[in-house]
Every structure is written in C-alpha cells, then in structure tokens.
Design goal:
heterodimer; A: alpha/beta; Rossmann fold; B: alpha+beta
Chain lengths: ~250, ~80
C-alpha cells in the first residue's frame, strides 16, 4: 500500500480485526454485485469505500426517475443511463483506487458461472425469486459464498450461504418453493432506509468474509421489521433433502 | 399451549402479533396452521401462502415439523425485493 492508501483506509486499518493484512485482502478481492438497485446501491458504495479491489457490477436495467427515492448511487442527470455505468461513475468518484467492471445484461447461465469462478464472493441484490434461485444454484455449483439480502415495504431479510462450509445451508434450503409471486419494491412499495439497512448489513458481512474475522451470518437468517423497529434471528440448518445442495 | 408469533407484514395483515393455541390434537405445523385457519377463515389469503417462512423455537423448519406444548412457532412472510 502507498501512503495515500494507508490514509484512505486508516480508520478501518485501525481496527485490530482488519489491520494492514485485512486491508490488503480487501484490495486484492474481486466481488460480484448482482443488481444495482436499492440494495446494490449501498452495497457498492460501502465496498468501494472500503477498498474492495475489483467490483463487478451486473444489471440489465436503466436508471428511472422512480428509482432515485432509494437507489442513491444514481443521480437525476443520469436518468436513462444504464444502472451499471451510472453506478460505476459514482464508485470511481468515491474511490479511484479500485477497479470497476460493468456487465450490462441479465447475467445468467454460462456467463454467470464464468463470473462466479473469478470472484471471492457474490452479493445478491436482485429483486425476484427466479434470479435468486439461479444465482444460488450457481453458487453451490462453483463453491462461491453468497451474501443474500432482500427488502420490500417495511421489512427485510439478510443471510449468508457459504457452500465452502460443509454445514452451510443454501438459499433453496430457506425457500423450498418459488413464491406465488415476486414481491417487488416497484409493485409493493418500500421505504428507502429499509433497503439501506439491509444493503449495509450485506456489505458488512461481505467485508467480514473477505477479511476473515468475526462470526458470519452463515446458518442464520436475520429478519428486520422496520414498522416495529424489531430484529429477529432464526437458525437455518442445511436441508438433507434440498434439491440444490442436498447431494453436495 | 403453543405460542404462535406473526412477523412483519403478516402481523399487520392479521392484526395480531401472537396467539396461544391449545396443543392438544396438533401434531405438526401443517395441523397448527389448519387449526388457525379454521378459527380465522379470513386469515387464509395471508396465512395460507405456500411461501411463508416457518420457525419453531427460533429455528427455520418445514410444514411437516412436529410441534409440542411449550413451543414457540413463528410465521413470516417471504421477502424477495431489492
């Protein structure tokens, strides 16, 4: 690290859990962020600020006026731009020290597998069951840690699925059936700080996994009820009958 | 008795944070839910959802999980947005 990097990251290097070694791990990490909406915005900003060396951003969508209430990585003058390039601009302005790669497509199938094989972990910031199930299966197949967040209305959920660990459940152990319908923020509404809280938790868990300290959320689900300002923690075991990870 | 808790939007949809249910004759979560829906038919659109998350004593389980007197059961809505 050069002097400027030592200064830029000094407040987290001060933490014994991070220190120089941890910062160097962050700088040499490569992370995929799937979805640059309400969750992806705080996730990308915090990981860029913390100096995660290479952020790969994937989103097929463009910035819309209705996004700006909560997707605070984007700006009014970037309405109509692809979300990935809009986000990349904000991240480079925040931290020119890191590398940002944009994938402006619905990342799936072989392309998704190829990306996962190159990253240290992935953050699921998507907004539908189909994407979440496919990403989970690809993470189990490639042994990629998955930091999962979801939020809608006044509630959110956070969990870590780490298929490198023998005891770790996967997303499919949590949701056995695809829901009747997706509960998207565009159809059901959401209060902006709710995605902020959940996205911040995802960024936090990602940094812990990359540096390798503390107790990760693996095997637990955190539920956030913003209306009543309550958190609940539930244990989640690996399901031996899981169609995705049961025979892993 | 079984203590049943409802979280997040489910709590607001049912207008109820928790209920106590006599455990007699209830073997598993599916039977507990059927019992609740029998007592509150208007809960069907919310409590009848296949995708609800279920927990017994703060551990996520499936609908066939056994419940006993003294257990704390929780029903939670799915969340997919972002």
């Amino acid at each position: 690290m050069n002097d400027e990097q030592l200064l830029r990251y000094s407040r987290q290097i001060l933490l014994p859990d991070v220190d120089i070694d941890g910062q160097e791990k962050l700088l040499s990490s490569r992370v995929l962020i799937l979805g640059l909406g309400g969750l992806g915005a705080p996730v990308a900003m915090y990981l860029a600020g913390a100096g995660v060396g290479h952020l790969v951003l994937a989103d097929f969508d463009a910035v819309d006026l209705t996004n700006l209430q909560r997707q605070i990585i984007h700006t009014t003058d970037r309405i109509g731009e692809p979300k990935v390039t809009s986000a990349a601009q904000a991240l480079r302005e925040l931290n020119p020290d890191i590398q940002v790669t944009c994938i402006q497509e619905r990342l799936e199938g072989e392309a998704l597998h190829r990306q996962l094989e190159q990253v240290d972990l992935v953050l699921d910031c998507s907004d539908n069951f189909t994407t979440r199930f496919e990403l989970n299966a690809a993470c189990v197949a490639t042994g990629t840690p998955l930091v999962s967040g979801a939020a809608v209305r006044l509630e959110g959920q956070v969990a870590v699925f780490d298929s490198r660990r023998e005891d770790s459940p996967c997303y499919r152990c949590l949701y056995h059936t695809q829901s009747e319908e997706d509960l998207t923020c565009s159809a059901n509404g959401v209060l902006a700080p709710v995605v902020g809280v959940v996205g911040s938790m995802q960024a936090l868990e990602a940094i812990k996994l990359l540096v390798g300290f503390g107790t990760s959320l693996t095997g637990r689900l955190l539920l956030f009820d913003a209306r009543h300002a309550q958190w609940r923690e539930l244990k989640l075991a690996r399901d031996p009958d899981c169609p995705v990870c049961g025979r892993r | 008795m079984i203590t049943v808790l409802f979280f997040a939007q489910l709590r607001d949809q049912l207008g109820c944070e928790s209920v106590s249910v006599n455990a007699e004759g209830i073997r598993n979560l599916a039977e507990l839910r059927a019992h609740l829906l029998e007592e509150h038919p208007d809960w069907q659109p919310y409590l009848g959802l296949e995708s609800l998350l279920l927990a017994v004593n703060q551990t996520l389980v499936k609908l066939d999980h056994v419940v006993n007197s003294g257990d704390e059961v929780a029903f939670m809505p799915p969340v997919t947005g972002g």
